[in-house]
Amino acid sequence: MSEKSFKTVKAKLLECNKLPEPIKEILKNNNSLKDLDENNFNQLWVLIHDFVKEMTQVENITQDAELLLCYQCILDLVNYTITCADEDILSVCEREHNYLYKTILVFQTFYSTNLKYKFKIDIVKMCCSFWQFVTSSPTQIGSDNSINLDSILTQNFVFTLNYIFDTIKVTTKKMDMKVVSTLLWEFCKIVSTLPSNINGLNFIVPNLKNLMKCTLFLETETGKLTIADIFTCSQQLFHIFHQIIKQILTKANKSLAAAYGEIYFMAWINSNSSIREVIEEKIFDLISKTLTLQRIGLSFNTYRNALTLLQSLQNHRKHLMFSKVITKLYTPVIWRQLTSEFSVVRCNATDILARAYPLEKRGEGREVSSRFLIKQQNAFLDLLVDACPQVRITAIKGICSCMRYFWNSFEDEQILESFKVFIRLIDESVFEVRRVLLYGFCQLLDEFKSHSYFKNPFLITKLKNTFYDENEKVRRAFIHLLLKIKKVDSHSDTSDKINFTKIVDLRNIASALAREDKQNGLLLVDLIFDNFIGDKVADKHTTLRRFYTFYKINPNAFRKLIIYSEKHLDFNSACKLILSLIKTVYSALKKKEERLKNIDKENDVPPKRRKSNDDSDSDNDSNNSSCSSTVSNNEEEEQNEHNNICCILDCVNCLMILHRNEFKNEENHQQIKDIQDSSITCLIKIFKFYKEGDAYYSAMSLASLMPLSKLTPHVSITSTALSTLKQLPYDINQAEEEIDMRKVDCLVYALCMWKRGYEILQFVNVWFDEAFKTLNLNETQYPDSKISRGKKVRFQINFDECKPMTGILLINSILTNLQTQKTLTDSDVNKKNTYDLFLYLHRVKTAIENRISSDNVLSNLLTDDVLIELFLLHNRLHIIYHSQKKDIDEIIKYQTSILDWVSNNLLISDLHHKDEATIKFTVKIIEIVNKMTLNMCLMAFVNAIYLDDYITFCATVLHNYIGPWLLTTMIATLAHISKYFNYQKYVGNLSNDTSILTNCVCSIISVLSESKFNADRFISVIGDPKIFRNNLITQILEIYKMNTVEFNQVFMTLIETIMNIIANQIREIDEIDLNEQLTEMPFASYQLSALVLSNAKLRKHFSSNAVAIFSSNVFKNDCVLLLSAISFVYTLSFQLSKTITIDLEPVVKLLYKTLMEHNITRTPLGDNCTINNTNADRGVSILETSNFSNEVTNFKQKGRNVLIATAKQLHVTLSE
Fold it and tell me: Does residue 144 come out as left (phi exceeding 0), alpha (psi in the -120 to 50 range) or beta?
């Protein structure tokens, strides 16, 4: 600081009213610190010290602005003194009499006050400056003081250091953290250089440990330097640091992991050779440990963080010496682990090599470096064809990343070989490999030099087939690739473009867009939309022409194109397009009208006598014949016109649906009015020209969005729609001509949107009544029915007019669409019609009872399918009606009555004597009950009492003959009930006794051992094995979350059922089947075993409890069950890929011990344990003849031989 600076500080001090006059007098008489003699200097700081210390006792110091200003000025003076300090000034006193020093110490007491943060930081900066001065010139405070610097810090600056550490913990702003971390580093870097720093380190190290998880602190450069400087003070300290990092990596985030890597490098670069050796040893330890980490659970998180840390280290390879260190540390361990017998290790090694690439032999010559690079590239090529899919996936990611960033390091030969392997991998059986490869191509395209390789005809052919891949994620990856090609082509010259249209054409894209879901559909629209509207399109005529072309290729794809266009077409642009399209249609219809008038004039036909194109008469009039001939000559033109009108109407319809929310805004009122007026004018003309066909239904779909009141004065569309629905065939699914359900749904939707859905319910109810009349169950037989009596009752059944199945389809069409479903309860009239239909369908229960008791189909109208659908409809209507009012109690009450009805009326004792069709019919009815309960559970329309009733109902069903037929739907429903229980448990509202559910699940599992199920019978009775396994595993895992004791009960039942099924087979055939494959086991036991082995939690539980399970007395007392356990473990020993986490060795030893200690010395299995054919004269049992010798043996010998074979397979030694 200059003299001017001192004058500024002095002037501010003299202006302070609170400053004592003696201090002011000393300052007034001196223009510089050098002007002060020893006495004045000492006196000045004594007075300042006493003043500051005295004022610290004042209450409410933060309220005294004058005093705070005085403190700030004194602080400036202290800083000035330290900054300008020299030997003449600071050698005037010994430290114990240095009041400047004591003043600094007093200022540290302000950290605990409520003073402003900036003032406290100024105090820290002052202390830091003083500390730097003291350590740089120790002789200025006494000749012996250099020895005590370590104690100076810990004794006199502890308040400052504590404040810094506490502030870092609570700081949330980056700029503030940068300031505080810099101050801490200023202190610490000096401590790290002191000859004696034990006290300082003992204080700083524990505090730094607490900051090792502070992301914001470690994101600052000085924060990382602080840790690097302190923990490299000794080898022991760095060892501590390394252990801390290994512990934190388990739960660290990516930012922290990257910061740790930076610290390792900073520590290495700033250390001496002895410390560097330790650091390199620790880095090698990290690499070695990372290579062997599992890719599951917490271990996988550690692995990802370790990779990030290592990547952060590798980013400093530009440093020549460190690059050599990286190569030295990585090379030996990576080459060894790339060929490891464990796929997870190979996978990790591949990942690390990809991130470390290119490992360089710098300074060893070009030839050595080139060979070393080729060796790494060849390693990737070998890994691309590894037996493990996960290794192949990692290798694809690795080599694509390496080629993207280090293309020039690859020779042409290596690149060609890589693409040959890529082409083969496109046909890979594992979908994840195909998916990752396509995303790898996206990455490669960022390298301009790779583009020529994507023009390979073989690659293009293979890629095109990917558009039809069975896996949705692979197709999505391919669409991303097309988008990437489009993007890179937009930045390339014409000659260098890949051109995605050479891979797929417009028809391929249309076909894909029509069948894909929304996620993939949006990407496809991104790919092609700018070819319809945008800078690439010359004018609106081009847009229209391209719309027509795309619609002709695939109408459904075109509709999706518009529906998914929100990202590319804003609201105002959409409105302009709608008006333009409507105008185009109207103009085309006017031209057509004029053309037809001219034809009529030429043929002398009055205009009013002309029929529409789709409604022409078969008149023999010569003039009409001439007209018809003219039209047929232009048939293709008429068809194109028809398609074009459909295209425009569908486009307008989709745009209005897409922007329906914007149309509701008040500011857009005029736009919707203009569009409605134009649309209605256009629709009126369309309905006059088209009475059927696609144009009619497209117009109906658009009309459903318009106010009906504006259409009815001109056209009778509602009556026409109702008439069309009434004329549908008896059974739409079995009609001679295929019925387009999209058109049926269109009419139903339109009527519902016009508030005329109740009319569908009314005429459908008439059909139902005619059908029930065959059983005398029509409405006249039900006086309590609330159905309106104003309907016409038909006394003769006309099959053409009575269509119950068609009626069901129409009502289901209403219920399936949420918008139309809401119309059933949006008014009192609709509510009444809905509830009346529900009440009317009560009689379906009586019809179902009659069907089961008669053991025959009731009539041609009330077929089994009709009754099943009516019963489902009856239940759905009840839930929909009451859910609108949130009347959960009423829903539960009625569904409980359904459970009672099924138990009392359907589960009859002689059901097993009924016809197979009757049994299947009964099963379908009860499946509906299961389905209703599942839906109620999903909607939370249940309570504890109902769920208990349902579980009891399931137990009742299981004890009936038809129990096995209902296992799949029952277990699916119970699984959702378990999820509901777990949610209730989470919120603390679970009041059910879950043991009832657990017992029910155990009963379901046990059913599989009560009857013999081969594959055909399993599928016929229980259903799809995969669905059954998925439902059951979901159920078991939900019980695991709910109660571990009950889970153990279920799991034990599962294993016992497997054993019983195998035991039943042993008893039946008098032989132990030595099955090496799960599929060779009895089918039901195979399904349950596959369930256990396919889930990690169940495998782990089995491994942990297998010894306890097979220690049960059941296996000690029943020799057949003991043999079934031995057979089961023998089969498991051949499933190494699935049982790798299951330790079978103790199980084998236990079974061997149990077998040898069995109290029956000789038990010929055929005589003592066979339950089938016990009276047959079979001779010697097959089990008495060992497969391993020709001697007659007892069951012990047989079991012993199987266990020995198992032990050999597992490389286990058995001892007598």
Answer: alpha
Q: CA nearest 302: which of 294, 312, 310?
A: 294
Encoded tokens for 1003: 């009963």
The count of structural domains within the chain is 5
Are residues 776 and 916 located together in one domain of the fold?
A: no
- The model's confidence at residue 97, banded by pLDDT at 50, 70 and 90, is low
d(CA 823, CA 818): 9
CATH of the domain at 425: 1.25.10
Q: Considering the domain boundaries, does residue 819 fall inside one?
A: yes
pLDDT at 830: 84
Please count the residues of the chain. Answer: 1216
1037 and 891 belong to one structural domain: yes
Q: Report the pLDDT averaged over residues 353-381.
A: 88
Note whether 711 and 703 are within 8 A (CB): yes
Domain assignment present for 67: no
Helix or strand (DSSP H, E) at 749: helix 741-753
Burial 467-495 (b: 16+ CB within 10 A, else e): bebeeeebbbbbbbbbbbbbebbeeeeee
* pLDDT tens-place string over residues 230-260: 898 889 999 999 999 999 998 888 999 999 9
Looking at 539, 554, 569, which one is the last position of a domain?
A: 569
Q: Give, as one character, the DSSP assignment of residue 1192.
A: B
Same domain (yes/no): 1001, 1091: no
Please indicate, yes or no, if residue 615 is contained in any of the structural domains: no
1066/1063 Cα distance (integer angstroms): 5
pLDDT tens per residue, range 748-794: 999 999 988 888 988 898 899 888 888 888 764 433 444 444 443 33
- The answer to whether 501 and 531 have CB atoms below 8 angstroms apart is no
Answer yes or no: is 263 within a domain. no
Strand partners, 1192: 1185
Token pair 């740089």 is found at: 136
pLDDT band at 142 (very low <50, low <70, confident <90, very high): very low
Task: Pick the last residue of a domain from 443, 474, 498.
Answer: 498
What is the pTM assigned to this prediction?
A: 0.77
Provide the domain limits for residue 1155: 1067-1163+1187-1210
CB 197 within 8 A of CB 152: no
Quick one: 1038 and 978 in the same domain? yes
- Give me the pLDDT at residue 785, please: 40
**Can you tell me which residue has the tokens 């629209």?**
525
- Please state which of the ranges 45-59, 620-634, 1108-1122 shows the lowest mean pLDDT: 620-634
Dihedrals phi, psi of 1185, to nearest 5 degrees? -110, 115
Same domain (yes/no): 524, 465:
no
Query: Please, are residues 59 and 112 in contact by the beta-carbon 8 Å criterion?
Result: no
CA 986: distance to chain centroid?
Answer: 22
Q: Tell me, what amino acid is at 1165?
A: L
- 1097 and 1203 part of one domain: yes
Report in angstroms the alpha-carbon separations of 1163 from 24, 1144, 1172.
115, 27, 17
pLDDT at 135 over 60: yes
pLDDT band, residue 557 (cuts 50/70/90): very high
pLDDT surpasses 90 at 476: yes
CA-to-CA distance for 129 and 213, rounded, in angstroms?
29
pLDDT band at 268; cut points 50, 70, 90: very high
Q: Say what the pLDDT of residue 506 is.
A: 93
Q: Angle 390-395-401 (CA atoms, 0-180°, nearest 5)?
A: 130
How far apart CA 478 and CA 484 sit, in angstroms, is 10
Q: Are residues 724 and 864 in the same domain?
A: yes
* Nearest by Cα to 863 from 799, 785, 819, 926: 799
Nearest Cα to Cα of residue 928 among 844, 819, 863, 860? 844
Which residue stretches of 1133-1210 are H helix? 1145-1156, 1165-1168, 1195-1210
Residue located via tokens 């589960």: 907
Same domain, 1130 and 992: no
